[in-house]
Amino acid sequence: MPTVERIIQNEIRLALAPDAVLFRGNIGTAWTGDLVTKLPNGDMLIKNARPFNSGLPAGFSDLFGLTGAGTFVAIEVKSPQGRLTDKQAHFLDFIAGRGGISGVARSVDEARRLLAGK
To answer: 64: which DSSP letter?
Structure first.
């Protein structure tokens, strides 16, 4: 079942598609090791297992891309109760400080206002 934030992200990407190309920033953790063996029941056995983090750096926005004019956009999508982390706030400030469009959106309307500079 998708989270509230995931639903809002998808709604924003679809609604803003005429004005901006937005991508979802994916991150994840997987496991790697010295020897990976698939067992007969489908389980995986990993010798000397260790986590492997992949994707964008901590604080990178949920949605990012470009407007039709080529301006970089970074949107942190939050549920109505969601709060920014310090790293997320720093990233948004970093983008804005370099001429990009950045901010928090909890709805399609907020994302539209952000893109319009309001």
So the answer is: E
pLDDT, tens digit only, all 118 positions of the chain: 778 899 999 999 999 999 999 999 888 888 899 999 999 999 999 999 999 888 888 899 999 999 999 999 999 999 989 999 999 999 999 999 999 999 999 999 999 999 998 7
Phi–psi pair at 57, nearest 5 degrees = -70, 155
Q: Provide the whole-model pTM.
A: 0.81
Q: Collapsing DSSP states into helix, strand and coil, what is residue 43? A: coil
Domain ranges across the chain: 4-25+60-116, 28-55
Distance CA 110, CA 118 (A): 9
| CATH class of the domain whose range is 4-25+60-116 | alpha beta
Return the beta strands (E) in the chain as ranges: 20-24, 27-32, 35-38, 44-47, 50-55, 63-67, 72-77, 101-105
Q: Cβ(96)–Cβ(89) under 8 Å?
A: no
CB 110 within 8 A of CB 97: no
